[in-house]
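Batch manifest, entry 17 of 40.
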Amino acid sequence: MAVEYDLVIIGGGSAGLVAASAGAQLNAKVALVEKEPRLGGDCLHYGCVPSKSLIHAARVAHEVRHAATYGIDASIHDIHIREALGHVHRVIDTIQVHDSTERFEALGVEVIYGEGQFSDRQTFEVNGRQLKARTYLIATGGRPGLPPITGLKEAGYLTNVNVFSIEQRPSALAVIGAGPIGCELGQAFARLGSQVTMIASRDHILPKEEPEAARVVQAQMESEGIQVLTETRAKEVLVENGQKVIVTDRGDRITVDEILVAAGRVPNVESLNLTAAGVEVGKSGVLVNAKLQTSNPKIYAAGDVIGGYQFTHVAGYEGAVAMQNALVLPTKKANYRVIPWATFTQPELARVGFTEEQARKRYGDDLMVLRHDFDHVDRALAEGAGIGFAKFITRKNGEILGAHIVGPAAGELIHEVVLAMSYKLKVGALKSIIHVYPTLAEINSKTALQLTKQSYAENTRLQNLLRRFFDFRRSLGR
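Output type: structure tokens
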């Protein structure tokens, strides 16, 4: 039976937009269904874009406070949160143009706004219409998870969805969750004048990161006045005298104006009637194979809705893989061997590949740990940013297994390592590149050089041979 579309995409976030744009440019007939009255998804409206815009405003405030370090007499008289958030929304509006309905319609995509669901394995209903396509892509993303804390709903709380719309800066803010979202927004609000308390269930913040790198970020946050309660869980929330009181499992009572919940995400699947479509869902989201096919091979899924690496850049990559398989032949597999990410605190923390612990479990003693501190990088010292380090984990033959950078511009610096890993270059390639002096990027070559230094230090035979060689050369007087 003939169908109207080659591909119907459900969800207008990063994965959906990449798939729609590329599919339309291949001259496929593509429909994009989005339940919100605008495209862009979480990243543009509630995630990456607004958070980094707010972080920038907070960094400006922090630099003004510390201007005296550089002989500059400056002070902050007041911080106007509404104006700071005005900057955030101006940035969103500027970027929204690139994700506009008009742009995608000009590419040939049919954009449909409305909340729909599958009625059977090959039909998606929206606004009373029955859309039939050769293939479908579920890219509905995720939303903030709500931990089971007694009284939290009744007391009220913020998430990344509504925090950028507040009218007043909270004098005291509690952050439940110490992952990237909690850390970025917690530090930003502290720099904008809130007294921030972070509640972390593990023994340090950012538990998915290399522990010693995460502790550098934690130490900086604590030095800025942020209280970090580790190995602690919020147990109950009370409302007393117009304020919210968090009671922890350790007996702490934390009185705040607002609570920001940043304790994980859940997939947006409930309204899609996936059972009718024959699509299986697991605890983390829609179940897919390596080609991003669901249990219904005509339906693909990508982005946060499948769990896994919940980053905008990964969602975009998955959207491209799913689109290619859906429109051409299902031959391309998603490759997660080299996935970088960064947390945009100050200092920034960026990572790709294995942690040292993960690498040791797989490779045992065939491992080298290379490290260089930013306080030995001249550009970092010149900018008063000599905090943190780069740590590369390699095999003894120089194969790069993982890299962790905590320090200034870490999210930018990691890409040199990402390129090397993607093209299976050994760490010596980073050492051999001539880096501009003075730049922060020297951290990569200086860290890579540690493999040569460590290998030489362990090779006493080579040391003795070279010693005898130079003794002999000197004896000849030439």
